[in-house]
Amino acid sequence: MHRIGTLILALAVAGCGLRGPRLAVAPGTTAEGLFAGLEARRAAVRSLRARVQMRSGLAQVWAREAVVVERPSAVRVDVLSPFGLALALGTDGETLWVFPPQERLRYEGSATPENLARFLGAAVSSADLVNVLLGMPPQRIPSAPLRSEALADGMVRVVVPFPNGEQRLEFAGRPAYVRRAEETRAGALVMRIDFDDYRDGFPWRMDVRGASGAAASLRYVTIEPNVAVDPAVFRPPPAARVLPLETIEVRR
């Protein structure tokens, strides 16, 4: 059984409160209007190339990453060390691969929520992961009318029902942006994401927690939205051997 540390991609940071000033949303703002604004942001940002600092795992050590994402479900993350590439992970939405170059082999499997959970700490789809790395909560299609709840300091919570669960989005500011997103399934919390340090509509700080307790903090250093991405970026690199993902023992 091969061993590998939990990826610093792990979705999420424990209980960090919202940072920075919180302005009330504009009077008369509706749940439908807030939700439509979020969907407009999704449509406006299709890809991203970024440099990120991320902290996760038991050691809570900051690491440098190069991230490329493209809708609907393509992701590549290169974990960098002072000596070069330490680990790469990628998916085109169908195949999930992990490549530790020092081992001269590659691990592969289906990009299922169960496989992603082994490395990310939360059972999410690759499309969900793309949305998070693009600075947004996972996309959910409402299965019932949206509900609006007034919060302290003029913030507004929009509840998005979907089959077997609901998403709770807390908006603040003018323009209004999502400051916290929580998702529950069958009444149990699945994940929570705090968004902060918005600049030109993008949150440069995110703290995320998964149901398993896995946690991570993301701090964007540079971002290039809507870049053209060669599909080859998301393909697995060549390796002398290819082993199934199930042979990896993940250290928490």
Q: Termini distance?
A: 15 Å
Strand fraction band?
over 45%
In spatial order, strands of the major sheet run 8-9-10-11-12-13-14-2-3-4-5-6-7-15
What structural class should be given to the helix and strand makeup? mainly beta
- Average residue pLDDT: 87
Number of helices, counting only DSSP H or I runs of 4 residues or more:
3
Which regions contain 5 or more consecutive residues with pLDDT less than 50?
Answer: 6-20
Number of domains: 1
Reported by name, the CATH topology is: outer membrane lipoprotein receptor (LolB), chain A
Spell out the helices and strands N to C. EHEEEEEEHHEEEEEEEEE
Largest sheet: 14 strands, mixed
Level-1 CATH class name:
Mainly Beta
CATH H level: which superfamily?
A: Lipoprotein localisation LolA/LolB/LppX
- The portion of residues assigned to helices is 10-25%
Q: Can you count the beta strands?
A: 16
State Rg.
18 Å
Global outline: globular
CATH architecture: Clam
Explain this structure.
- With 252 residues, the protein is mostly beta strands.
- It has one domain: Lipoprotein localisation LolA/LolB/LppX (outer membrane lipoprotein receptor (LolB), chain A), CATH 2.50.20.10.
- Helix content is 12%, strand content 47%.
- It contains three helices and 16 strands.
- The protein has helices at 31-44, 113-120, 126-133, and strands at 2-5, 47-56, 61-70, 74-81, 84-91, 95-99, 105-110, 147-150, 156-162, 165-172, 177-185, 188-199, 202-210, 215-225, 241-244, 248-251.
- The strands form two sheets. It has a 14-stranded mixed beta sheet.
- Strand 11 (177-185) and strand 12 form a beta hairpin.
- The radius of gyration is 18 Å and the shape is globular.
- Mean pLDDT is 87; it is low at 6-20.
